[in-house]
Every structure is written in structure tokens, then in C-alpha cells.
Amino acid sequence: MKLAIAQLNPTVGDLTGNGQQIVSAAKRAAEQGARLLLTPELSLCGYPPRDLLLRPGFIQQMQTVLEQVAQDLPPGLVVLVGLAQPNPGANQKGQKPLYNSMALLENGTITAVFHKRLLPTYDVFDEDRYFESGTEPNHFHLTHGDGSLHIGVTICEDLWNEDGFWGQRAYAVNPTAEVVAAGVDLVVNLSASPFTVGKQRLREKLITHAARQHRCPIVYVNQVGSNDDLVFDGCSVAMDRQGAVVSRSHGFEAGVQLLEYDVNQRDLKPGALTPLLDTAEAEIWSALVLGVKDYSRKCGFTKAVVGLSGGIDSALVVAIAAAALGPNNVLGVLMPSPYSSDHSIGDAEKLAHNLGIATQTLPIGELMAGYDNIFLDFFAGTDPGVTEENLQSRIRGNLLMAIANKFGHLLLSTGNKSEMAVGYCTLYGDMNGGLAVIADVPKTKVYSLCHWLNYSAQTGTPLGLIEQTGQSEIIPNHILTKPPSAELRPDQVDQDSLPAYAILDDILERLIQHHQSATDIVAAGHDPKVVKKIVHLLTRAEFKRRQAPPVLKVTDRAFGLGWRMPIASRWPIANR
Length: 576
Description:
- By secondary structure, this protein is α/β, with parallel strands linked by helices.
- Helix content is 37%, strand content 18%.
């Protein structure tokens, strides 16, 4: 019996377009002889729909489109489609108004509806805000020829409660164990699981454990693409009864992949097996390129503008933009000040040449003098300092926003996670933009990504831009070797204000991702004065982060929906 996986890239709220994607995938699956097509969680509305779920018309239209999809499916094919379904008992029982569901479509009708049982409320997830938990194990019989296949249905989080894997349970029930106890031949899991570095390997370890534990093959189907700040990597995978990987779809690409279930052996047969990306850098690069590409496309942008300083952060961002949108659709803007070094201008120009992007140079010296003149009397008697330095960043931010506004470009901000964490960035200056591309990438990882880009160029690794430029070096070597500097005053370098980035990033990772206390971090070997300073900077920069553009998430703890720190707080972030 042939089964098909539809690794789809939906746009949130595009019910008709998403429905057409499902029908198109169904036709491809039927042409290959599939009996069942699996689609991701909430595949009809896209994940995450967030407060669109509060709109009654959105829910009603979703049902209408579902019925049309059922009518448009090829005969003989059964399809599982993800959508939000009204909860009839919401008013009488005080329950949430919706279920996160999978509808079973066959022969033009909706033959069954299954509800998600475990609703995550951590990190970026807030499903309990909208959904009621399902209460019954989900399974159905799929007829084929003279026999049938008994299939258990789980939805995303339903798979993630294996106490034998985690050492404990996060929820009272284990939906996978319950459907296996019902005697199913196969478990399918329909997911919209966001990307973070290394997550696919964790998923596969979990699914391997579950398949071995329950002696049942498992097919995991994941959404692909980017919606707002979340990137979905796909990487749909199937495990046999022994927990061996028998099939894996391409990461970061939409498509339909076929599986075959051997009804005699009661197991999945080996199929197409795409290898996993081999480094964290390859994963992050793929995620960020897809994030920029989809954010631009789904928000209606075709071109992007990036401020080029000659530094490493803007170099990485503009390379990502060129790979995502094509070099012809990216504009780099150089805005030298009297403090800009000749090498920074030269490095930026060489980078643009390597990428094949257009540039525009807008010197800001006269604008700086104009601001100084305006504030001459008002600032009289005060010493020049950070305020005057930040005016340079705000002038540049205004120029970039004017270009974006005039020509309809998407402005990509270039700040990294280390800077965002400690507030080494300027509100209404370098923080301006529609998307913060690398604000979840620490500075040390920015360097490793750029080195990886150059190595990949030299070894012929496909990056989405090498074929277009023909360059063996993407990031000019001098950008990689010179001390990082904002160049807001003569001879300034970042380390005038911050510890070495290797030290800073280790402290920040311990604070942000591992929730360590200052005492723990000092015990790990860090200078108490440095730790105290970084804790102070991280805490006081919260108001800046709240006003930043959406941040593409690539780590377990990004400055976005999953980061919910108060701005006005008297509890130090580094306390236990």
C-alpha cells in the first residue's frame, strides 16, 4: 500500500491558496498510486494562525474551503487535512471554542475528524489560548483491495510525551501509547514543528525511541517554509518497527514523497532517504535564507535593502539576502561618516562585487554637521558622548527607511544576538527594519558562518548564490580578520565597551538559554565584574528588544514570542 507525504509551505490565512496546494499535492500523489496522503498540522490555514483563530468568519471560511478541497480531490485517494474546528461544547462546558484537528477526506466527503490531545504552552507555543484538548485516541481503518490498514493519528505535540525518552511525562496521557494499544498497524504524526539548530536529530531520536518502544512504524510529516519569525524545516521522516529511518524528505523544501507499507510484514519499506545537513552552519544558513525568502514573498516584497558598513554582520545579512532573493533584487547602501575607515568602504565595495549586488553611497558627514548645529545651543555645557555617536546610526536608519519607503524595498536589519542581548544597538537607527535576519545568531556564530560560507564557496557547496556569482570568496578576508567596530568615533572597537565575544557569548548562552545564575556563571570561571556588567546590560536592554523587528528564530531561546521578560522589573535576570 502506497502512502504519500505532502511537505507543504502554507501561507497563514491564505485558505484558498493553501487548499489549492493540498489538491495539487493530492493529484501528484494519486498519479503515483498513493492510497493515503498526509499533510501537516493546520495545513489548510497555515501554522501558526495566532489570533486569526478569534475571527468567526475565518473559522467558517476554513470549513467552506475544506468542503471544496474534498470535492476537488482525485477519486480513490484519502487525505488528512489539518484545520481548526469549532468545539460544540464550548458554551455549555466552559471549554475553549476550537479544536486543533485533522479531517479525513474521501470520495468528496469529510468522513472523520480527529482532535489534537496535547497542547503546548511553552516557548513560542500558546495553543491553550485557542484550543480544547481532544479526549479520545484517534485512529481509523484504511481499506485497500481485500484488506485494510489500521492507522493511529497523532498531531505534533502528541508524539512528544514519551517518558521513557525524557525520563518524565509533561502530560497525563501518552496519545501514541493509546493508539498503539488500540491495535494500529501504523502511527502517523502530522506536525508544524519550528526549526532550531539540531532539532531534527532530536526529533529522530525521539521517533526512533517511540517506534522501538511501541513496536510500531511511525510516519512524521512536518510543515516547511517560514511564517513571520518561525522557520519550518520539513525533514519529514519515517521509521520502521525497529526504529530505523526508512525515508526522509528534503529539509527546507516543499514536495511530495512516496512511502510503501508492506501489509504482509506489517512494516514500512525502505524509501528515498535524503541525508541530514552535516553542520550547524549549514542548517542555520538554510533556515535564514528560507526565512528571508518566505518573509519577503508572503509580505509582498520582491527587493531588499541593507546598510553595508564593511563589517561582518552586514556582510552575512546581505549574503543571505542575495541567496534568498537573487543579487539583482538586493541593494547595498554605504553611508560613510568622517569616522569611517578607508578599509571599511573598500571591504563593503568588494563584498558587493563578490555578490553581484548594486550599491549606492550616501555620505552622512553634512547631515551629522547639521544635527550638531541644531543642538549647539541646547547641548551647550555638556560633553559629547553616546548621544552624539548614536545620531550617526539614526541618520543612517532614516536614510535606509526612506529608500525602503520610496521604492517598496524590505529593509533588513543587521544586528546579531550578542548586540541585541546587551543593547549594543541603536533604537530608530541600526535597529530599523522589517526583519531582523541574524538577531538570533550570536557574534561568534556569525564569524563561523562567514568562514563556512567561504569554505563552501571554495569546495563548490551549493549555497543558492555561488552559481550566480562565480566567486570562490564570498566574504572578503579582511572583514573576517579586522577587529569589529561600529566606527562611531575615532579608533573605536567593540571591545572598548564589551568583553571579547567568545566570553560574552558564553555568558549570554548561560543566562539566556540555560537560565544559570550569576553565581553559577562565576563558578564556571568568568570574572565576577564582567558577569555583573553583562547581567545589567541584558536586563536594561529589554525595552529595546521589545521594539525590534521580527527575529528569525534559529535557537531554542530567541528574542521573540518565546521571550517574555518584563520591561519594568526589580528581579535581576541572573537570580536563581
